[in-house]
Amino acid sequence: MVRIDFERVFEALSSPHMVVDRQLRYVAVNAAYERVTMRTREEMIGRHLFDLFPNEGESGRRLRSSFERVFATGEMDSLPYISYDIQRPEEQGGGMEQRYWSAVHTPLGDGEGNVAYVVQNTVDVTELVRLRQAAHLPFRFGEIKLLERAQEAERQHSALLEEAEDFRRLFQQAPGFIAVLSGPEHIFTFANDAYLRLIGGRAVLGKKVRDALPEVEGQGFFEMLDRVLATGQPTGGEAVRLFLQRAAGEEPRETFVDFSYDPIRDGAGQVTGIFVQGMDRTEAVKTQRRQRLLLDELNHRVKNTLATVQSIASQTMRSARDLESARADLEARIVALSKAHDLLSAQQWANTELTTLVRQELSVHDRDRVRVDGPWLLLDPKTSIALALVTHELSTNAAKYGALSSANGKVSVNWRLSERQPRDLQLVWTERDGPPVEAPRRRGFGSRMIERVVSGELGGTYEAEFSPQGFACRINIPLNA
Questions:
Q1: Residue 55, by phi and psi: left (phi above 0), alpha (psi -120 to 50) or beta?
Q2: Which CATH code for domain 6-124?
Q3: CA 105 to CA 70: how far, in whole Å?
Q4: Looking at residue 141, what is its pLDDT?
Q5: 3-state SS record for 192-228
Q6: 3-state secondary structure (DSSP) of residue 422
């Protein structure tokens, strides 16, 4: 087998050739390239192309864009006609020399399917341009015809590039995510802004999908891509769940997407790639979940509230002295229940703070006669409703028969948390300077309801004390109940 020394072939090519890496640094140049640029390879290797040959104008922009297209798409790109001045060496007089070129840029892979380098083949057409400028008769020389065809081709090429760039911007800024995968290994050749946001801003162009998104392995999406490429049949789904790394360095998190994979065919009808499009539905799906949970919770709480109202009404009517007092008691108890609901609604039925709850129920009384003291404590909805009803009954009894029924009576409400774990809430209600009290001969609805709520609903204990100094009670509630 004949072994070919490609380095010698590259050096011997009569047409100027050079190679740049992804940072546009020179990797190799041949002798013809040294001659046309009037630079030695020692001056160029490792240097940035635009540091050696700067051009801030339209020509520089077109040259840079051509390189970027090749690195982004993995496809060859050409500049049939471009004006690009170069610096003459000092020994040749210095200054800038106007030159005209035709260039072809070819991608060079790194063995793993990624574009690592671009090979440029350059033709200096300056002399043809000067012949054209000097000619009195158009099309006198065949070279001039060739040049003008090249100029026309360049105009058409530029028009196509502008149109393609418009479409590219349209796809780039689209609200839905879009990507283009090429070949059997699904190499990214395009990904718009929405797609990059979805995957946490990772650089994926030129990478295989399995290398670019390793956390998706085992979730079925790579297999779907393989099937679309093999069968030519599109596929997709709505609100499909996957775990995706949404920010650099974080663990993959639950994501929901609407998506479709559509085959891309060449002129012969062969599937050469896959067009990926879709929408990030994560927040919408989570909102629907929250709404479902809230609706279920609302249904549950409405049933519980109706059961509580039914019990209050039944017990109030059973123990009332007359119809008018029954009406007043029932109305007051339902108002207390409503206030507790208002507090919870203000917190979106999450939690209420104990101080706020107690002060609300005692707010109808003179603040100088009521003392509330205890640590800041959040209560869950169930405990909030229960303690609101208990506080209402204690406040009502104090206003009717206890300390708040006299001019000088006072009420204090104190609570603390136990030291042991799980922690208990220990609440003490104390009345002083009111009329003399004594234990009732029969238990009314209020005391029965307090006991039932504390022990039955909250799993706690209730102890009442009727002393000459005034009524007092102690309530103990396990907070994990």
A1: beta
A2: 3.30.450.20
A3: 7
A4: 42
A5: CHHHHHHCCCCCCCCCEHHHHCHHHCCCCHHHHHHHH
A6: coil
- Residue found under tokens 């104990």: 354
Per-residue tokens: 40: 């030695």
Instruction: Give residues with Cβ within 8 angstroms of 168, minimum separation 6.
Output: none
Q: Is the CATH number 3.40.50.880 carried by domain 177-280?
A: no
In 110-176 the beta strands, taken as DSSP E runs, fall at 115-124
Please give the average per-residue pLDDT across 457-481, as a whole number: 87
Judge if 177-280 and 285-478 fold alike in CATH terms: no
Can you name the residues that pair with 442 across neighbouring β-strands? none
Distance of CA 87 to the CA centre of its chain: 50
- Max Cα-Cα span within the chain: 129
Residue recorded with tokens 């917190």: 347
pLDDT at 305 over 60: no
Would you state the structure tokens that stand for residue 79, as one six-digit string? 């500049």
Measured between alpha carbons, how far is 433 from 10 in angstroms, rounded to an integer?
A: 108
Q: What superfamily in CATH does domain 285-478 come from? A: Histidine kinase-like ATPase, C-terminal domain (3.30.565.10)
Q: DSSP states of 19-39 as a string?
A: EEETT-BEEEE-HHHHHHHT-
Q: Could you tell me how many residues make up the chain?
A: 481
Average pLDDT score over the chain: 79
C-alpha closest to that of 10 among 123, 101, 120, 125: 120
Residue 157 has pLDDT above 60, yes or no: no
Name residues whose C-beta falls within 8 Å of residue 123's C-beta, 6 or more positions apart in sequence: 15, 16, 101, 102, 103
Segments making up each domain of the chain, as ranges = 6-124, 177-280, 285-478
Cα–Cα dist 453/449, whole Å: 6
